[in-house]
Amino acid sequence: MFARRRKPTYWDFSVNCTGSEAHLSSCKLGQILALSNETCAGGMPVVVSCVPGRAFAPTPMTGYRKAFRQEQPLVRLRGGAIVGEGRVEILKNGEWGTICDDNWNLLSATVVCRELGFGSAKEALSGGQLGQGMGPVHMNEVQCSGFEKSITECSLNKDALGCSHEEDAAVRCNVPAMGFEQRLRLRGGRNPFEGRVEVLVERNGSLVWGTVCSEGWRTMEAMVVCRQLGLGFASSAFQ
């Protein structure tokens, strides 16, 4: 109640964006408006309404079917320890390949993150920092305006040759807080990073914690658990 009655404090400047910036902090400052404890013209704070990406859209996909047609993805992230980070790989002529890190920046990384349904990019990584890929290097000297819907629409230098996987580009995206890590827990371990896997599942209208059968349980499945909990890579998978 108190928070609702309290007058909002406004920033001293107006903001002028081109629309392609990775972060609001990259936008240019406009004119000085007023002191931060005074109301700005109209007296209302700005409000935005965002469309969640594929992975974060409500289920069932009501109202999102048009926006997210189920097509074969052209871009994927590999080698990341948590959701929303990894080496950028693109599909071209039926073969997955990487992107060379020449000119790789936050603007191009943000195009990748948005295409995958995350927020803007937190970091644009170069030098194969999140692992070296295999196969061809599909794109070199990538330059995005920031308005592209896919990294495959950005311009590139077709004549630039000789890029090795030591120069593979990667991203770390801003990931919406959707509470995925709260539907999973580890119990009975010697530390918070190990234990019996328990999942929260709806049964008869209420949420109940239960275990997972270990048949077919391998490191690959453990990787998904660790990533969902934000703990990085799996060390071992026990049955």
Walk me through the topology.
Layout: H1 2-5, E1 13-16, E2 28-32, E3 75-78, E4 85-92, E5 95-99, H2 106-115, E6 121-125, E7 137-139, E8 170-173, E9 184-188, E10 195-203, E11 206-211, H3 219-228
Parallel strand pairs: 5-7
Antiparallel strand pairs: 1-2, 3-4, 4-5, 4-8, 6-8, 9-10, 10-11
InterPro entries: LOX-like_protein (IPR050912), SRCR (IPR001190), SRCR-like_dom_sf (IPR036772)
Protein name: Lysyl oxidase 2B
Pfam families: SRCR (PF00530)
Describe the structure in brief:
It contains 3 helices and 11 strands. It is an alpha+beta fold.
What does this structure look like?
Keywords: Disulfide bond. Disulfide bonds join 17-27, 144-154. Residues 1-51, 75-174, 184-239 form the SRCR domain. The chain contains 3 helices and 11 strands; from the N terminus they run αβββββαββββββα. With 239 residues, it is of the alpha+beta class. The strands form 3 sheets. Strands 3, 4, 5, 6, 7 and 8 form a 6-stranded mixed beta sheet that branches. Strands 9-10-11 form a 3-stranded antiparallel beta sheet, with no helix packed on it. A hairpin with a 6-residue loop joins β3 (75-78) and β4. The protein starts with a helix and ends in an 11-residue tail after the last helix.
Shape call: flat
* Major sheet attributes: 6 strands, mixed
What is the beta-strand fraction? 15-25%
Span between N and C termini? 51 Å
How many DSSP H or I helices?
Answer: 3
**Multimeric state of these chains?**
single chain
Write down how many β-strands occur, each being a DSSP E stretch of 2 or more residues: 11
What would you call the structural class? alpha+beta
Q: Give the fraction of residues assigned to helices.
A: 10-25%
Poorly predicted ranges (pLDDT <50, ≥5 residues)? 61-68
Radius of gyration: 22 Å
Mean pLDDT over the full residue set = 84
Topology order in helix (H) and strand (E) letters: HEEEEEHEEEEEEH
